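Fold it.
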Amino acid sequence: MKRNFLFSWYQTPRGKLLKELEVDYLQRAITVSCQQSILQIGGLGWENEFIDSTLYKKFVILDSKQLGSCPATKIQAKSYLLPLQSNSFDMILLPHLLEFDEYRFQTMREIERVLKPEGVVVIINFNPWSLWVRYQFLWDKKMSDSWRGHFISQSRVLDWLKLLNFEVTTASGFYLNSVKSAQGKSIRKNCTISATAYGIRAIKRRYNLIPLTPIKAGKPRLAMANSITSTKQIHK
């Protein structure tokens, strides 16, 4: 996994704007309480812009190169082989990770394993149909030479989540051709060809089957009709 393309992109004017949109998106996507645990796979270096590590003391960053903001707990490991217990995190963040992960689907399986039932996963990827991303990739040799990934469409990620029994709650696109406001109006709940990147928020669903108790066939009971003799019959 090599994410130099991502970090070089953030240094461009459009990359800086995308970073602002992603910060706004992640701030609104983190809805768990301060006592719950959050895992971010793939360090960015500017986590303090969308989460307060002193407030969320159970915030962990897992990265093969130990990237990430200093206050957070760091784990150096591979994303497709997480050294974590099953059902141990309430939320998992994947900011531009799957595109650079050679074992991306195995990573998704590990995320499903580590996430608690009804836990939330947030995924951010580049839009493979974005002309701006393609242009930057083809014409900037420094960025293209560092590319060790694969663009993934939003529909494919949705299929993966469905296969792993996740329920997608929101799928948003990040648009750089609109002016960002404090409310993040440049983030829309759809993704078209003009979107530079997209974000998906999904919930891990687990439905427990309730076994049906077999009904025992009871023996029929006979009811005696007119079993009580009337007083008139007794005197006769």
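The longest strand covers residues 115-126.
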